[in-house]
Design the sequence.
């Protein structure tokens, strides 16, 4: 364990660590653009310059620790060179922060104010480059903002392995460009480069000029797109910045989804499906309880459901593999003794979707089948002989395959033709409206929190199960 001094503080480094890693582990901040803990070392931005007594200035990201070295991260020499590097990096940068989506979370903006703060020294016109270069249907590139840190190219070479990006030309006309025959649009992890880009050069089309990041708040959640259960942040409008007139839908919609770093599950990455959770959660909702397709009050629907349960001789439940651990426990507690329960597959791969790979994406497109399977067996192709009542919880059930003549109670959150075909239909809440946990295929439990209010009419499945077991007043 080599011991080094950083700014006079003793630091126990590990063998093989770089000075940058040792400093960060000791809580000493050293600025970087190109360095990233999950990518190879490029050493091209020179922002992590430090001074080593007796050796002068060098980059900390590529300097192995050696016993007894004395590192200064903020000496006058380091400060002067950092300032010079920022002058150099911004030489041809448009500094168009006022229209840049990265403003508010841009390292260049932050470092400029922390370590430079001066206007450009250059008297020459800036070198112009491509704006709005179309990298894929999801991502635009602004070459004028690019500082050529090469995080994006290294990501496609080392993590997603699509090899989709490279550098074209040299000097001040160098540009990031797609590699021929390797379309970035076919990389299901491509949007990670938007997060990785330390400046606003890579822009998400979904998010482009929609809002400013300081109007948004992240809520921790879990992607339900497959059994990996990546932890994510769902970004939505802050209460104090609610839009009153222009577009109130912004107050209740997902602005963007980013990874919530989690070494036990997904590291710092998610796939593009996780970015597109609005496509799942913002489908048209079912808001009214129904009896045979006709809207009724919730109490009337529950009363009828209880009557069907009481009269059934062989009731079967198809349990959702999108239900949370708490909902599964509530089902087991209130109705487990009444129904013969099986686990239903709620979601299957969509056409064109990557089924599985060795990075994150799993073939099972349900977030909590592991927890449901710990309680019940998978649903058979044909339900047991004599089944006369089926409680269907969640999506993915082929109503045409249910036993002929069996009565159906259906819990679903979204508008669907099957809602009207059930004897009793009960509208339920979705993940973004409640608190809960999923257990992924490796047994890791992750928490999701509510970001939005329940819409009128939707009820938590936990409350519905309780009310189905015994008459109790339920508020929609
Ligand atoms: S586009 Fe962004 S991530 Fe890629 S090289 Fe330029 S600054 Fe770095
Ligand atoms: S790998 Fe699975 S859980 Fe992770 S973001 Fe993609 S779809 Fe969601």
Sequence:
């Amino acid at each position: 364990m080599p011991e080094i001094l950083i700014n006079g503080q003793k630091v126990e480094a590990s063998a093989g660590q770089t000075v940058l890693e040792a400093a960060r582990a000791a809580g000493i901040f050293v600025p970087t653009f190109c360095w990233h803990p999950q990518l190879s070392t490029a050493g091209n931005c020179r922002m992590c310059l430090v001074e080593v007594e007796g050796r002068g200035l060098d980059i900390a990201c590529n300097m192995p620790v050696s016993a007894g070295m004395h590192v200064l991260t903020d000496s006058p020499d380091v400060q002067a060179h950092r300032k010079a590097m920022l002058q150099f990096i911004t030489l041809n940068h448009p500094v168009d922060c006022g229209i840049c989506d990265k403003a508010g979370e841009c390292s260049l903006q932050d470092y400029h104010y922390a370590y430079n703060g001066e206007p450009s020294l250059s008297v020459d016109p800036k070198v112009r480059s491509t704006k709005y270069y179309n990298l894929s249907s999801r991502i635009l590139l602004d070459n004028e903002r690019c500082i050529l840190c090469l995080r994006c190219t290294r990501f496609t070479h080392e993590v997603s392995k699509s090899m989709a990006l490279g550098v074209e030309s040299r000097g001040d006309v160098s540009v990031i460009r797609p590699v021929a025959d390797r379309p970035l649009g076919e990389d299901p992890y491509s949007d990670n480069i938007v997060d990785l880009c330390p400046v606003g050069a890579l822009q998400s089309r979904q998010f482009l000029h929609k809002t400013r990041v300081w109007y948004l708040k992240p809520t921790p959640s879990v992607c339900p797109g497959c059994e990996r259960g990546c932890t994510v942040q769902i970004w939505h409008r802050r209460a104090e910045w609610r839009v009153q007139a222009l577009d109130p839908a912004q107050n209740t919609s997902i602005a963007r989804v980013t990874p919530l770093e989690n070494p036990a599950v997904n590291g710092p990455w998610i796939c593009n499906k996780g970015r597109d959770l609005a496509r799942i959660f913002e489908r048209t909702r079912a808001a009214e309880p129904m009896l045979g397709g006709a809207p009724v009050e919730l109490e009337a629907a529950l009363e009828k459901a209880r009557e069907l349960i009481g009269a059934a001789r062989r009731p079967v439940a198809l349990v959702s593999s999108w239900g949370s651990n708490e909902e599964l426990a509530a089902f087991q507690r209130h109705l487990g003794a009444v129904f013969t329960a099986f686990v239903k597959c709620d979601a299957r791969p969509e056409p064109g979707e990557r089924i599985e790979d060795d990075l994150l994406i799993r073939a099972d497109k349900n977030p909590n089948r592991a927890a449901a399977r710990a309680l019940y067996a998978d649903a058979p192709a044909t339900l047991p002989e004599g089944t006369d009542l089926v409680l269907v919880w969640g999506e993915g059930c082929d109503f045409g395959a249910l036993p002929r003549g069996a009565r159906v109670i259906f819990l679903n959150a979204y508008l669907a033709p099957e809602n009207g075909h059930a004897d009793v239909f009960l509208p339920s809440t979705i993940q973004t409206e409640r608190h809960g946990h999923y257990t992924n295929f490796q047994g890791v439990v992750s928490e999701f929190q509510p970001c939005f209010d329940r819409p009128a009419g939707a009820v938590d499945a936990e409350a519905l199960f309780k009310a189905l077991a015994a008459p109790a007043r339920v508020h929609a």
